[in-house]
Design a protein that fits this description.
- The chain folds into six domains: 2-55, Arc Repressor Mutant, subunit A, CATH 1.10.10; 59-121, Nucleic acid-binding proteins (OB fold (Dihydrolipoamide Acetyltransferase, E2P)), CATH 2.40.50; 126-204, OB fold (Dihydrolipoamide Acetyltransferase, E2P) (Beta Barrel), CATH 2.40.50.700; 213-461 and 529-594, no CATH class; 467-518, no CATH class; 608-690, Nucleic acid-binding proteins (OB fold (Dihydrolipoamide Acetyltransferase, E2P)).
- Helix content is 30%, strand content 29%.
- It has 16 helices and 33 strands.
- The strands form ten sheets. The chain has a five-stranded mixed beta barrel with strand order 3-4-5-7-6. Strands 10-9-8-11-12 form a five-stranded antiparallel beta sheet, covered by helices on one side.
- A hairpin with a 7-residue loop joins strand 11 and strand 12 (181-189).
- Helix 12 (467-479) packs antiparallel against helix 14 (507-517).
- The chain is globular, with a radius of gyration of 28 Å.
Length: 692
């Protein structure tokens, strides 16, 4: 590949390439097979005359397709080129998630535009939706994943599916006609049956709840074996310390725990204990291979799809109270100003003294009596010391410009059958911030140590914002009489903007726009810093039960502790592949989680048809107004056709729709009263009308 791109004068035939690369005659057959593999992966490209060339030299880009609501899409290159915009009519048979070859046709002001010329790898082997049977023809109205196409089903391939069933279809032919062709694999149930729609999301995203039998078997074997005396060798014994976990009330996988010591000079030493998953999940094992494929645990609205089998994630690795557990620990010493002045990393064994929910921890911090506080009178003092350390660190973090979002977070309350009975805004407590701050401190400390030792690892990077998005945010800020730089904005500028709207009616709107203006964080093998945290080095160390990159960091730390030189021998190619895989799986998990929550929000609003709510305009487009209810974290649309007998003109700069005749204007942030007039589960859409 390097020769074709950097040294060859043009496309070359296989024999010409073999001669140029001094491939022995005896190896030529294997060389041809290697070329075929590279071609299949899109790494090299065959042109006229059977010659091979590097794709970039032919104006071709290889990457993953990401579609948008309009039907168009962007190809995210495998290698760090610009994203390529592709119009809907130029996608061919490619759908969201496919790995494709795109030909760059022209360069526009916003970047390159191209056409998909080949699908290299299909992202979806299955689709979920509603089975429809017509006269002599059957098809699947696909709901998961959002492919934008129906799947044709031959009569002999419809199985036991009846018209209207929610079914899983295996796609057997993507390219045989205007629609893909498939066969019914199984029927999930009828629309509206308890749990069916969330199950459809799960299956549509390819999320297998059960692990392969060989994975479950090995995990059960490890769990049954438990902790042996030899497992404790070389570990710091922290079982006598007061170590606590603080998690959601329904959490089963406790992968972090905290302990605190007061130092003679007034400082604090915090022990951040993280489950030592790497001790059990050995590199190359069947558990490891499955964890790599999954990349992350997925938290749907009513179920968890764990990265590791329950025998590990909820038992042997989980830092449950009153049992011995193995950890990797970062001991962080904080000075009075919140700086981490010393970091000590190592292996430990703990016995968690308390399993606290965030709510119980907050009650103890507030001085209230709880069963845990009554049982252990010193618990409150430790929690307050941990809060003190976190506040010191948070203040220092804010000084350097780290962003602190306080966005409303939805919590959908379900009944025993999975039906939504309430959609609450989850309160962000001091106890939440305590854990968040100390986990960030540990992640930064480990990242700094990794860099100092020259150990390869996966970093969590967050690049600087796109200049166009900066300009859009500056215009929005100006609409609310706030200042924000048009270019070269730093994290501190974002935080000043967030602080300026704190407590104002437009706070959630500006916070969301700030979030949308930022790049998406991802994993990488190089340390490019974290813009949002204003951090020079950051990685993920604190959740190896549910994130594969954390497990990679733990293994590198373990190698260094055992034999420093071995930590530098890890394959860079494997790390690169793992960074891409983890980033892609994280994005997929976020979409699935968001879809499951949106589904339940729509289901919840079905019982509120005709009801009226106070709300706020959260977005303005040419086709209408996005409306966010004040009582719930729920958003819907008032279509422009429902605004009255006038023509409304969209002013992008002022974020408003204004009537030509009446001059009535609807602006971003305006309070309104709305009525729920339509709910569509299939589209996950809620329509409002304004109450005049």
């Amino acid at each position: 590949m390097r020769y074709l791109h950097e040294e060859a004068s043009g496309p070359l035939k296989p024999k010409e390439l073999a001669r140029a690369l001094d491939v022995p005659h005896a190896d030529y057959a294997e060389f041809r097979r290697a070329l075929a593999r590279l071609e299949g992966r899109g790494k090299i490209y065959r042109v006229r005359g059977g010659r091979f060339a590097a794709p970039r030299d032919l104006g071709l880009v290889i990457g993953r397709l990401q579609t948008i609501e309009s039907g168009a899409g962007f190809v995210i290159p495998d290698e760090g080129d610009e994203d390529v915009f592709v119009r809907a009519r130029d996608l061919g048979t490619a759908v969201d998630g496919d790995r494709v070859t795109v030909r760059v046709d022209r360069r526009e002001r916003r970047g390159p535009r191209g056409s998909v010329i080949e699908v290299l790898e299909r992202a979806h082997r299955r689709a979920v939706g509603v089975f429809r049977r017509g006269r002599g023809v059957s098809w699947l109205e696909v709901s998961e994943p959002r492919l934008g196409v129906d799947v044709f089903i031959p009569a002999a391939a419809s199985g036991e599916a009846a018209d209207g069933d929610v079914a899983v279809v295996e796609i057997t032919d993507w390219d045989g006609g205007p629609s893909p062709v498939g066969a019914v694999e199984r029927v999930l149930g009828r629309p509206g049956d308890p749990g069916v729609e969330v199950l459809a999301i799960q299956v549509g995203y390819g999320l297998a709840e059960a692990h392969p039998p060989e994975v479950e078997s090995l995990a059960a074997e490890l769990n049954e074996r438990g902790i042996l005396p030899e497992d404790l060798e070389g570990r710091k014994d922290c079982r006598a310390q007061r170590v606590i976990t603080i998690d959601p009330v329904d959490a089963r996988d406790h992968d972090d725990a905290l302990a605190v010591e007061r130092l003679p000079d007034g400082g604090l030493r915090v022990g951040v204990h993280i489950a030592d998953v790497s001790h059990y999940v050995r590199e190359g094992s069947v558990i490891d291979a499955e964890a790599w494929e999954r990349g992350t645990s997925v938290y749907l609205v009513d179920r968890v799809i764990p990265m590791l089998p329950h025998a590990l994630s909820s038992d042997l690795c989980s830092l449950r109270p009153d049992v011995d557990r193995l950890t990797m620990v970062a001991h962080l010493e904080f000075d009075d100003s919140g700086g981490v002045v010393r970091t000590t990393l190592g292996r430990a064994v703990i016995r968690s003294a308390h399993k606290l929910s965030y709510e119980e921890a907050q009650r103890i911090l507030d001085g209230e009596s709880t069963p845990a506080a009554e049982k252990d009178p010193e618990l409150g003092a430790d929690l307050r010391a941990l809060l003190d350390a976190s506040k010191r660190f948070r203040a220092r973090r804010r000084e350097r410009g780290s962003l602190d979002f306080d966005l409303p977070e939805s919590h959908v309350v379900l009944d025993d059958e999975g039906a939504p009975v309430d959609v609450r805004r989850r309160e962000r407590l001091e106890a939440h911030m305590l854990v968040e701050d100390l986990m960030i401190a540990a992640n930064e400390a480990v990242a700094s140590w990794i860099i100092e030792q020259g150990v390869p690892a996966l970093f969590r990077i967050h690049e600087e914002p796109n200049p166009e998005k900066l300009e859009a945010l500056q215009l929005l800020a100006a609409e609310f009489d706030l200042s924000f730089p048009k270019r070269n904005a730093r994290p501190r500028d974002y935080q000043r903007l967030l602080d300026a709207v704190k407590g104002r009616v437009e706070e959630p709107l500006v916070s969301i726009q700030v979030l949308r203006s930022l790049a998406r964080a991802r994993y990488a093998t190089t340390n490019d810093g974290h813009f949002g945290l204003a951090s020079s080095a950051y990685l993920h160390f604190t959740s190896p039960i549910r994130r594969y990159p954390d497990l990679v960091v733990h293994r590198q730390l373990g190698r260094w502790l055992d034999e420093p030189a071995s930590a530098r021998d890890v394959s860079k190619d494997w790390l690169e592949a793992t960074a891409k895989q983890a980033s892609a799986r994280e994005e997929m998990a976020a979409k699935a989680e968001r879809d499951s929550i949106d589904l339940k929000k729509v289901e919840f609003m079905e019982r509120h048809l005709g009801d009226e709510f106070a709300a706020t305009i959260s977005g303005v487009t040419g086709f209408g107004l996005f409306i966010r209810l004040d009582a719930y974290d729920i958003e819907g649309l008032v279509h422009v056709s429902a605004l009255g007998d006038d023509y409304f003109v969209h002013d992008e700069l002022k974020h408003q729709l204004k009537g030509r005749r009446t001059k009535r204007a609807f602006r971003l942030g305006d309070p309104v009263e709305v009525q729920v007039v339509r709910v569509d589960r299939d589209e996950r859409r809620i329509d409002f009308d304004l109450v005049t």
